[in-house]
Amino acid sequence: MQARDALNYDYSVAKCFTYAAILFGIVGMLIGVVIAYQMAFPELNYLADEYGTFSRLRPLHTSGVIFGFLLSGIFATWYYIGQRVLKVSMAESPFLMIIAKIHFWLYMILMTIAVVSLFMGIGTSKEYAELEWPLDILVVVVWVLWGVSIFGLVGIRREKTLYISMWYFIATFLGVAMLFLFNNMEVPTYFVAGTGKWYHSVSMYAGTNDAMVQWWYGHNAVAFVFTVPIIAMIYYFLPKESGQPVYSYKLSLLSFWGLMFVYLWAGGHHLIYSTVPDWVQTMGSIFSIILILPSWGSAINILLTMKGQWGQLKENPLVKLMIFASTFYMFSTLEGPILAIKSVNALAHFTDWIPGHVHDGTLGWVGFMIMAALYHMAPRMFQREIYSKKLIEAQFWIQTTGIVLYFSSMWIAGITQGMMWRATDQFGNLAYSFIDTVTVLMPYYAIRATGGLLYLIGFFMFTYNIYKTMTASKAIEAEPQNASPMAA
C-alpha cells in the first residue's frame, strides 16, 4: 500500500481510544501499586478511611486495567487495523463514523460511572463482573455499537479475504457477548420486593450453578479479552514492524480454531476441590492441559516469523517488545495448565502463586503488546517520528525487571503459603496459624509491590514518549515502509 494512500484512513476514533488507554492505564496501574503496598504495609489501609482500603480499591484496579486500559487498547487497534486490512476508510461511511464516535463517548461515560460506583462500594462482588444491572445494560449497548462498526466495515470492504487478525477480532466480539449475557443474568431486587436500593440485584443462578457460570465467564474473559484480541494485534503489528510475513498462515488458522473450542471448557479449573461435580473439575483440568497446544501454536508461529531476522531485536525496540510479549504468553500458558493439574492445584489454590500467574501474563503479554501496538500506530496516526527509541529501550528493561520481581516473589510466596497451610506436627495438628503465614510473606509482598512500581514507572515513560511524539517530534510526510507483503 502506498504511503499517500495510508494517510487517507480516518484515525480520529483510534486516537481517542489511544488517549483513553493511556489514561486508564495510569489510573489502573497506579491503584494496583497502592494496593500492593497496602498488602506489604497494612497501615496504609487506614490513610483514607473506607475509600482507601484494599477491599474498596481492588475492584477499581482490576476493572481499570481490564475494561479501561485493555479494552481501550483493543478498540484503538481495531479502529486502526480494521481499516487497513479491509482496505476501506471509516470516513467513507458517515453512518459508521457516527456509530464509532457514539461508541467512544458512551464507553467513556460508562467507565466514568463504573469508577464512581465501584469507589462507592456499589457492586455485585462477582470477579470481573462487579457492575450492577443498569451499567450491565449500558455495557451491552457499547458492545453492540462496536459490533456494528466491525460488521459494518466488513460489509463495505474492498479486500475480500479476511486477514487472520479479523478472525480474532470477530471472535472477541462474539465470545464476550455470549459470556457476558449469560453470566450477568440477574434480578433487580427493588422490582421484586419493592424495597432496597434501586440499583441492587441478585444473580439468576444460585449456589454451585452460580459459581460454575461465573468461572465459565471469568476464565473465558481471560480467553476473549486477554488473549484472542492480543493475538489479533501481534499477527498484524509484528509482520508490519519487522517486514517479515507470518511464518505459517495455516498454523494461525489451526491455532484459532483450537483456542475457540478448547478455551471454553477450561473454566472449571477455578473450582477444583469445591462443591461442583467432580466431572466438571476433571474436565477443566484436562482441557486446560490440552490448551497448551493451540496457545503454543500461536506463540511459536509468532516467534518463527522472526526466523533469520533475530538481529532486529537489537535494532528495533518494538520488535523486542512484541517478541518478549509472545515469550511471556508462552510462559503464562504453560504455567496455567500446570496450576490446573489437581495435585498442583491442591498446593497452589488460593495462594499468591495465582496472582503471580495472572500478572506475568497481563504485564508481559498484554501490557507489552498494547504498548508496542500504540508505538507502531503513533507515527502513522500523528505523522511524526517516535520521539525516542532509547527511551523505549530503557522502558523495556525497567518493566521487564518489574515483571520478573513480581512473578518470582509471588511464586516463592505462593509455594511457601501452600506448604505452611498443609504442614502438620507429630499429632496431626496444623503446624502454623494463618497469621504465621502472613508474617512470613511480608518481605515478598514488598518485592511484589516494588516490581509493580517499576512497571508503573515504565508506563509513565511510555506515556511521556507518546506525548512527545504527538507534540514535539519530527514531522514525516510518508509513513515508515517496512510492511510485510502478507499484511495490509
TrEMBL record:
Cellular component aspect of the GO annotation: plasma membrane
GO BP annotations listed: aerobic respiration; electron transport coupled proton transport; respiratory electron transport chain
Top-tier EC class: translocase
Binding site for heme b 1; low-spin: 61, 359
Subcellular location: Cell membrane
Residue sites binding Cu cation per the record: 219, 269-270
Keywords (A to Z) from UniProt: Cell membrane, Copper, Electron transport, Heme, Iron, Membrane, Metal-binding, Respiratory chain, Translocase, Transmembrane, Transmembrane helix, Transport
Its EC number(s): 7.1.1.9
Record membrane topology: Multi-pass membrane protein
GO molecular function, one term: heme binding
Note on cofactor: Binds 1 copper ion per subunit, denoted as copper B.
Cofactor(s) listed in the protein's UniProt record: Cu(2+); heme; heme b
UniProt KW Cell cycle keyword: no
Catalytic activity: 4 Fe(II)-[cytochrome c] + O2 + 8 H(+)(in) = 4 Fe(III)-[cytochrome c] + 2 H2O + 4 H(+)(out)
Pathway: Energy metabolism; oxidative phosphorylation
Source organism superkingdom: Bacteria
Positions contributing to heme b 2; high-spin binding: 357
Entry-linked SUPFAM superfamilies: Cytochrome c oxidase subunit I-like (SSF81442)
InterPro entries: Cyt_c_oxase-like_su1_dom, Cyt_c_oxase-like_su1_sf, Cyt_C_Oxase_1, Cyt_c_Oxase_su1_BS, Cyt_c_oxidase_cbb3_su1
Family of this protein: Belongs to the heme-copper respiratory oxidase family.
Protein name: cytochrome-c oxidase
Gene that encodes the chain: ccoN
